[in-house]
Amino acid sequence: MNKRQLLHSLYATALSLGAALQAAASQTGTWPERPIRLIVPYPAGGLTDIVSRVLGEELGKALGTSIVVDNRPGAGGQIGLQGLLQAPKDGYTIALVVPATMVTLPLTNPAYKIRPLEQFEPITIAVDTFLTLVVDQKLGIKNLTEFADYARKKPSQMNYGIPGTGTSFHFNSVMMMQKLGIQAQYVPYTGEAAILNDIAGGQLHFALVSNAGKVFIESGQVTALAVTANQRARSLPSVPTFRELGVDFASDGWVGYVAARGTPLPVLSKLQSAFVKSLNAPAVKQRLLDMGYQVVANQPEQFRKIVQDSRKRYEELLSTGSVKLQ
Asked: In sequence order, what are the beta bridge partners of 224?
């Protein structure tokens, strides 16, 4: 290729690149032009649904459109997330994800065919959630030190409940016990309500539970010893954090949002900016804090690293046999 041909080739490439950039800029400038569907792959009324609806109205204002929350539960979240992957990659369909759908299910369930880090584009983690260590109040245990001492004296007699083998509750319970230097036998359940009822009834010794435990705690049916948040939860202000009590433990719990891989980068950028703005809107932030959740509103690369780090940690627990799936 002579010099003239080279210059002509470079000029043609520049024109093509310029046209592509102009098209992207045009698309972002007008996007969105219609409502955005936000798939929540869980039933209405739960934590993930409530967070999405609290956030949705403000997010719609930030984007100049409406956000339609679409609850599509089933198959551990896989039905809803498959809906995201099957939709056009234009940013008009986004979805909610949690550690189960991004980390634990891909590691523990062969029937879970989604590859999150390959098929999704992280937008942001909206909030950090937390778990609360609760114990049978009839044991007479009043604090975390007493609990650890009691458990160490009865290594083969303690049991705890988890809402499903291989769930994030399972992994977090094992990590907590490692930090406390205790052992116990897990009992799998299909949901937290049954776990809390059995702790209150004396059939279980302890469990890490979500905000579903608040009613049982406030009524005195179970005793709350510590929360896994980085700071005290506003919904349970009298319960200390593990770190406050000298135990370096915080659970992997969050609610995040993703788009499908292939969504244009300018659209992803606009979505992420709108999410951050909405999460930091005073009214939204206050409602989420009142629910006990800490706003995160991080960047996509930070979101991706959190998922990667959690996966590595869970893979180690599986490989060492600390978490058994059977």
From this structure: 134
Angle (nearest 5°) at CA 237 between 234 and 241:
100
Tell me which residue has tokens 């909030």. Answer: 127
The CA distance from 189 to 195, in Å, is 7
pTM > 0.90 = no
Rounded Cα distance between 193 and 215, Å, is 11
Whether residue 172 contacts residue 131, with contact meaning beta carbons closer than 8 Å, is answered with yes
CB 159 within 8 A of CB 186: yes
Nearest CA among 239, 233, 252, 212 for reference residue 292: 233
When computed from its CA atoms, the radius of gyration of the chain, rounded to whole angstroms, is: 23
Give the model confidence (pLDDT) of 221-249 as tens digits: 999 999 998 888 888 999 999 999 999 99
How far apart (Å, rounded) are the C-alpha atoms in residues 279 and 257?
Answer: 12
Between vectors from CA 180 to CA 179 and to CA 184, what angle results, nearest 5°? 110
